[in-house]
Amino acid sequence: MNDVLKVQDLEAGPGEKVHGYLNIAEKPAGRHKIPVMLVNGVGSGPTAVINGGEHGSEYNGPAGVLELMKTLEPGEVDGKVILVPIVNTLAFEARWMHGNPIDYRDLTGYYVEEIPRGGSGPPKITYYVTTTFYREVLSQADYRLNLHGGDIEEDLLTGTMYRMTGDEEKDRLNLELCRAFGWEWIRESLPKPSGSPMKFPVTVGTEAGGMGRCQSDIVGEVVRGCRNVLMKLGMMKGEPMVPPKAKVFNPYHLYAEHGGFFISNVRAGDMVEEGQTLGVIKDLFGETLEEIVVPTDGVIHMVTSPATWQGDVVYEIGKDIREI
Ligand SMILES: [Zn+2]
Fold this sequence. Notes:
alpha+beta; Aminopeptidase; CATH 2.40.50.100; 2 domains; 13-stranded mixed sheet; 4-stranded antiparallel sheet; 5 helices; 19 strands; 19% helix; globular; binds zinc ion
């Protein structure tokens, strides 16, 4: 195996920790690049990526990465760790939700093998971010901690998440890693047919806090959770600090049938019962256009913006809750 950890021209030999930039593309006024740190441990363990900020106004994950950049030392790591605090720095700088203000694309839907050519229209900076991050960072990783949270308009239940693949062995490991992170709630999504030959690392996602806030208690939990997962993988010494029980749920969305002013009766984390009225949408004369009724028992995973357009997601609900 190659003992040097390398991302573009940044290199860390065994036992070294270095930082620099991942060069993405050239903008009209100069180069677009994002901060990256390489921690090359002393053993021959796997490679893990810890990144925040695919969405630029979700803050607790990135703040956790900043803490890990200061405190994670090569001497305590068996394997290699690549730290990227904010992938979508364009959105971070502009306090932008979901996409970015240059080409409006949401990174999470734009991991492609090749950047498409052709046509006028907005710049393709999102494609350059995703393809460069994939080729240089994700493609050399076995595991990934992908640190999300609620965006500026999202009230979100803190927890971890993963998507099943249909490969039982892999899914079991992925759920174990989510469990090891240490939070009570785990969001489990069904397999999605991809057709893409791109191979992604086994990924633990987080939803850490929300509504555009960054708070040190949640940041501390993010740091502890990342270290827990590295322990579970045998990449650090120690046992993960994990509460005795966790709850797994399957997510689904409720959509607005009307545009208007959305007022919620419930918050993220509230338990709800089938038939309960969760909120209302009013027009701007105060008339109720719609009452939103939940069709199953469950937990409120997400509540979105009061300024609602027809067809928007208003709630994400976790159903089929099981204890593990
Ligand atoms: Zn996100």
